[in-house]
Design goal:
144 residues, alpha+beta, OB fold (Dihydrolipoamide Acetyltransferase, E2P), 2 domains, 5-stranded mixed beta barrel, rod-shaped, membrane
Length: 144
């Protein structure tokens, strides 16, 4: 019944992975499952330990670096979120309640971030955020 012991070890390692989220215990749990299969087939303790070691080494040396690399990929902004931080030109005076800007070749409704500002036609602004179909903007020269 050594396969049963390996299954218990895999469950314990899986629980440890659940709490740590490091991927190490999860890979070791997978290796323990491989050892359980090897034990279930009837291979002796040396074969079980070799299967455990080989699977754990493969997981830690191959799978974990790949997963780390995938987790570190920079997030790409899509849709209207990609417009935040872009420069735009004022097409119609922008106030706290209304205005029109040209942003990435399209006309967008806009309003000023600072409610006391009135941004004239022809001025350049930075898009600070997007609320629905309205860009919230701030004049470029007033930014620190």
């Amino acid at each position: 019944m050594p396969w049963y012991v390996w299954l218990l070890a895999a469950a314990a390692l899986g629980a440890a992975e659940f709490f740590t989220l490091t991927l190490v215990f999860g890979l070791l749990a997978g290796a323990a499952l491989v050892a359980a299969v090897v034990a279930g087939v009837g291979i002796g303790l040396l074969g079980q330990l070799l299967a455990l070691g080989a699977t754990a080494a493969a997981g830690l040396l191959i799978v974990r670096p790949i997963m780390r690399h995938m987790a570190q990929q920079p997030l790409t902004r899509e849709g209207s979120d990609a417009l935040i931080g872009k420069r735009a030109e004022v097409m119609q005076e922008v106030t706290a309640t209304r205005g029109l800007i040209k942003l990435s070749g399209e006309e967008w409704s806009a309003r000023a971030l600072d409610e006391s500002l009135v941004i004239p036609v022809g001025a350049f602004v930075d898009v600070m955020e997007i609320e629905g179909a309205t860009a919230i903007v701030h004049p470029r020269e007033l930014l620190p």
